[in-house]
Amino acid sequence: MTNQYEVVIGLEVHVELKTQTKLFCGCANAFGQDPNSQTCPVCLGMPGVLPVLNGEAVALATRAALALHCTVNSHSKFDRKQYFYPDLPKAYQISQYDQPLAENGHVTIQTSIGKRDIGIERIHMEEDAGKLNHLGQRLGDAEGSLVDLNRAGVPLIEIVSRPEMHSPEEARQYLVELRTILSYLEISDLRMEEGSMRCDANVSLRPLDYTGSLADLPRVEIKNVNSFRNVQRGIEFEIGRQRQLLQTGQRIVKETRGFDDASGSTYSQRSKEEANDYRYFPEPDLPPLVLSETWLQDQREALPQLPDELRQYLAQRGVAERDAEVLVQDLNLYHYWAQVVELVPDVRLVTNWLLSDYSRLVNAKGLSFAAPKVNAGGLASLLSLIISGTLSGKMAKEVLETMFETGETAEAVVKRLGLIQITDHNAIKEIVSAVVTANPAVVQDFLSGKEKALAFLVGQVMKQTKGQAKPDLVNALLREVLATYA
Ligand code: ZN
Ligand code: MN
Q: Where are the domains of the chain?
């Protein structure tokens, strides 16, 4: 048997849909309310109640499926997945088993060797379970557990990838891109800390000489990790653990493992269930879900611009790929960018300013582009002063900082501080000559070929003009004066 293995990773992502009401009843779908205040006989699993499917949830799930390039099935159905756990009042979860809502999509990720599509096997709809609050650190030493069923019946989609990722980094990229796409749809809060997006990772190692099917490889599922970084860490740990077991001739046990944040390790929770442990059968209280072509067309038309379309647009506008990615990842930032570009059509200048100095100030002051301190018009006027030559880049930085502090307009700051760039040829030449005369040693250095000496002289001129001399003019005049020494 070989010592070489290929890492095989598949991800199952649960996403809570941001509907008004729960999936099968009229209770509010609201996070952070008093325990058990958002419940009714249906989501409490009382005998004799009947579920009614929430159309808004179907619409949001369908849009997610379309945005992820899935085929949406015109016929799907709901099934009961039986398992016993105190957070599941009916002792079964209504889910979709053999006829899911959607199949065969993909998410495109950027790897070291270019773009690659990671397949999505299926997307199905299901209800969430409630929440257990253990009184103590861990379940094992808890004095008791409290059940909160506010979350029971909240609509979820489960997005199941194909086992097509081969490194922890690829898994993280898949998650980042998946979340970016879903964030454009505004169908979910997508907060991993609050559980509105949850990820389980299936990890196995395939010996390079293995020829059997991937499904037969012993795989370990890491459950409910609470951040992208921890998904990556958990997978990293799991790869190391499994490799060591295989290399010492031991077997990998098919099981579900938890992730411990503090130690970065995974620990055994239970042996993994097989599908037939759940005794799936069709939900008798719900009719099949049938979607008409016109309704599907409406959902297609309701899709907003998606990340890939935005990437294409930004490339057309001449935005560098790395900068474009920053804009794509933050729609508030992109909308701000678009407003400034509308006013100042110098795309390069706007992008540079926005992603460097402006973003630095926003981050340093803990602000956000959702409610910008300096609005797009304000930044546009500042940039216009650079284009007109009134301000040098360095002066503009100062002005911007002041704008952030005082809320003044660029023009007001310039006027108050007397910050007008010196573009007067003669005025600058005088200072240049004085600087050259005062620094004979540096001038010698320059004349003997040390280009760096010039930067020092430029610096001296800028210092004497308090940074208000036009830098390219200073440069040109210095070279002119130095030429007379050669
Ligand atoms: Zn309810
Ligand atoms: Mn599920």
A: 5-298, 305-417, 425-483
